[in-house]
């Protein structure tokens, strides 16, 4: 296994293990989940990119930051890690959380939440961790972690709060194996996040394509440019020696 895939495996496993064990935390669960994501991003971003989410990998593929082979191997690694994380969660706690829309939410509402909040989360990643203008910043992990905290607090009660197909897969599989659940809602946690990632990639393309870095000339005060022109004109009118 390459260092990149090992990093994705470990990072996704630790991140999703916290998700699998977060139900007893109750109202503070989003803070725990966002915090561990932030920590794992800082742990592995310099090696694998710190995706830990098939939707993130898909958006980076659409933006041509990774190739198809990397996308597929990352997806496989993330799903394996998700499976192991939710099995681990069941072994150490004796229960598995599963995932489903809120009791009063329709599938349309759940799908909309998964799409919109995954889109916002992925767009944050693209701008803080995959854009030349912000290259080398030290806040990218904090921004990514808090994007998930916000999504989980605001959208979690409606959709179940995956924003990550690996979470949808692991939680659904765990419930099916250990809790008598089924895959009825699984499609929401695949289509919603991948659609959100696609929209985020499109928005990021427009942001970058329509944002030109100002040249030095456009940043110089107009009066300075005028004086420079006058100086050049005066110099060119002097008699040659």
If you had to describe this structure to a student in words, what would you say it looks like?
- Helices cover 70% and strands 0% of the residues.
- With 241 residues, the protein is mainly alpha-helical.
- It has a single domain (3-210), classed as Glycerol uptake facilitator protein, CATH 1.20.1080.10.
Q: Layout of SSEs?
A:
Elements: H1 3-21, H2 29-44, H3 54-62, H4 68-93, H5 107-129, H6 140-159, H7 165-178, H8 188-209, H9 216-219, H10 222-237
Query: Under CATH, the topology is which?
Result: Glycerol uptake facilitator protein
What are the segments in which pLDDT stays under 50 over at least 5 consecutive residues?
213-220, 237-241
What's the CATH architecture name? Up-down Bundle
Output the structural class.
mainly alpha
Question: Count of helical segments?
Answer: 10
What's the multimeric state? single chain
Number of E strands? 0
CATH superfamily: Glycerol uptake facilitator protein
């Amino acid at each position: 296994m390459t260092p990149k895939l090992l990093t994705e495996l470990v990072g996704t496993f630790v991140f999703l293990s916290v998700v699998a064990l977060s139900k007893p935390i109750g109202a503070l669960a989003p803070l725990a989940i966002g915090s561990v994501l932030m920590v794992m991003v800082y742990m592995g971003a310099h090696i694998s990119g710190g995706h830990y989410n098939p939707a993130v990998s898909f958006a980076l593929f659409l933006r041509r930051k990774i190739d198809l082979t990397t996308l597929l191997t990352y997806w496989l690694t993330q799903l394996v890690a998700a499976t192991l994380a939710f099995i681990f969660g069941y072994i150490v706690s004796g229960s598995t959380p599963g995932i489903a829309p809120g009791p009063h939410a329709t599938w349309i509402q759940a799908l909309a939440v998964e799409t919109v909040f995954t889109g916002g989360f992925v767009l944050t990643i693209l701008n803080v961790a995959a854009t030349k203008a912000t290259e080398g910043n030290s806040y990218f992990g904090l921004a990514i972690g808090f994007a998930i905290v916000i999504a989980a607090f605001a959208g979690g009660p409606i959709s179940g709060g995956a924003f990550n197909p690996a979470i949808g897969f692991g939680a659904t599989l765990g419930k099916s194996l250990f809790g008598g659940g089924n895959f009825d809602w699984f499609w929401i946690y695949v289509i919603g996040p991948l659609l959100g990632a696609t929209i985020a990639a499109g928005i990021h393309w427009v942001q970058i394509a329509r944002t030109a870095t100002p040249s030095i000339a456009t940043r110089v005060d107009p009066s300075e440019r005028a004086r420079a022109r006058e100086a050049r004109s005066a110099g060119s009118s002097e008699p040659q020696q």
